[in-house]
UniProtKB/TrEMBL annotation, chains A, B:
<comment type="function">
    <text>Phosphorylates (R)-pantoate to form (R)-4-phosphopantoate in the CoA biosynthesis pathway.</text>
</comment>
<dbReference type="InterPro" id="IPR014721">
    <property type="entry name" value="Ribsml_uS5_D2-typ_fold_subgr"/>
</dbReference>
<dbReference type="Pfam" id="PF00288">
    <property type="entry name" value="GHMP_kinases_N"/>
</dbReference>
<dbReference type="InterPro" id="IPR020568">
    <property type="entry name" value="Ribosomal_Su5_D2-typ_SF"/>
</dbReference>
<comment type="similarity">
    <text>Belongs to the GHMP kinase family. PoK subfamily.</text>
</comment>
<keyword id="KW-0418">Kinase</keyword>
<dbReference type="GO" id="GO:0005524">
    <property type="term" value="F:ATP binding"/>
</dbReference>
<comment type="pathway">
    <text>Cofactor biosynthesis; coenzyme A biosynthesis.</text>
</comment>
<keyword id="KW-0547">Nucleotide-binding</keyword>
<dbReference type="GO" id="GO:0016301">
    <property type="term" value="F:kinase activity"/>
</dbReference>
<dbReference type="InterPro" id="IPR012043">
    <property type="entry name" value="PoK"/>
</dbReference>
<keyword id="KW-0173">Coenzyme A biosynthesis</keyword>
<protein>
    <recommendedName>
        <fullName>Pantoate kinase</fullName>
        <ecNumber>2.7.1.169</ecNumber>
    </recommendedName>
</protein>
<dbReference type="GO" id="GO:0015937">
    <property type="term" value="P:coenzyme A biosynthetic process"/>
</dbReference>
<keyword id="KW-0808">Transferase</keyword>
<keyword id="KW-0067">ATP-binding</keyword>
<dbReference type="InterPro" id="IPR006204">
    <property type="entry name" value="GHMP_kinase_N_dom"/>
</dbReference>
Amino acid sequence: MSRQRATAFVPGHVTAFFSAHPDDRPVAAGSRGAGLTLTDGVTVRVSTTDGSGAAAAAVEPRTIRGEPGTIGAVEDALGALGVTAGERVGADGVAVAVETDLPIGAGFGVSGAATLGAAIAANAAFDCGRSENELIRIAHEAEVGRGTGLGDVVAQARGGVPIRLEPGAPGVGELDGIPADSRVEYVTYGELSTEAVLGGDTTALSAAGERALGRLCEDPRLPTLMAQAREFAADADLLVPEVATAIEAVDDAGGDAAMAMLGRTVFAIGTGLSDAGYDPSICRTDTAGARLVRDAECE
Amino acid sequence: MSRQRATAFVPGHVTAFFSAHPDDRPVAAGSRGAGLTLTDGVTVRVSTTDGSGAAAAAVEPRTIRGEPGTIGAVEDALGALGVTAGERVGADGVAVAVETDLPIGAGFGVSGAATLGAAIAANAAFDCGRSENELIRIAHEAEVGRGTGLGDVVAQARGGVPIRLEPGAPGVGELDGIPADSRVEYVTYGELSTEAVLGGDTTALSAAGERALGRLCEDPRLPTLMAQAREFAADADLLVPEVATAIEAVDDAGGDAAMAMLGRTVFAIGTGLSDAGYDPSICRTDTAGARLVRDAECE
């Protein structure tokens, strides 16, 4: 018996620093590093189309914030689950609606969140019978395969303030976390292409990321995460001027800010950006990680 | 700068089935199996005593539901963190208050939850700088060392519907989960001694637990978990009459119930016990796992 529709929420994820670890096997490829998952995230609703039969299947509606739009990794994850018209779904099509208040392409892991959310929701809607680790692996492989991210999916699945000790999906990678709960503020100045950075020479970047991870593991505290994030952005030569200015302003006001990897985004712990006179978006670290949510209308 | 007080919530955990895996090293000892974490859980508040100096340190107040009471594994975890009067805490004593609506000794993992909650809260209150994995390991080792549980701590740290694939603390053990969210009902008839069962011959029990785990991994769905739980309780000869009667009544009413290991407790998915005419406690599967919570009075 399948419910034929389900909704998942996946937290946003700002990466503080990372090293890239490519591998021919997507399950083993990934990144090491650390970041914050956020209560601001992505909600994905998966359902059969309202109509039935071949006409509906031809539509396969996909929306992002109510507008038509597709995400490659989401499609790949649905394919890996066998959730397509003609397979498991029967003659009906599959509708996927992605909702988020997070800026897209600005370092919040929206593509990873949408992919993991689609996998979790589709598994529930169509009773695919996959385990949590299998769903995370499917989403991680889809994201890595599309080159849109390396470590967001496993971090978003865990929640909290994840440390990626070893790259890769569950069974290959390894995670820890900083046991912290904090208000988080952020301001975004626009996109920075993940593909462009990850497609270039990542040697210096990865060396800086490995150094930062070593120091964080010696002292797994939030202030150390932020300090290492600032050092990483400088060492890896990724800091953009607007973000550098904001980090300095927060520092002058006695706060703690850093740049989100990879986006033109500054994030701060506590009231750092507000205290420095900015008008930031406000959320918290997410405690639960990716999860099914109940449809209000179904209760 | 330490906050000198912090509060953690840890979900209750009903084990559906398990196999016991003793080991000379507590970090590697544990159990394989599966169960449900519950939104009914244990809240642990750790703080310095109100007074100061040697007089206060002599008190070291410990309460369970407001009454004086200590839990051995909680004390061991605080010791492992170095959180005792004279160490990290200075001249003040450490107060630990354990609050829970769950029945104690009835198969809800209250001792594991109190221990993990104390470790998480003490780490935050006294700025011990341990990572999440380290805190889970400390609590797991304390619980195993006292013989009060084998797999509750790692399951409670994860939340959801955890599958314990390999025994032991993070870095040794391995977890997966069933991606489900469900209402859970339970009725308790009293205690069953964990120490007595785990101290006896566990060969037949562990063989039944391994069989159940193999079947659940082939089909990681909630109904399969419940079916395997019922089979395990019968095979391991642990079923008590009151619980057997309730499981049968729920089955007759078209529902899905099983016995909590180890307690005289029956738990059901959805409205199983209500539909069968019982007056159960009602909660849900917990999505977040163990976590710091904000003190309402501090916000």
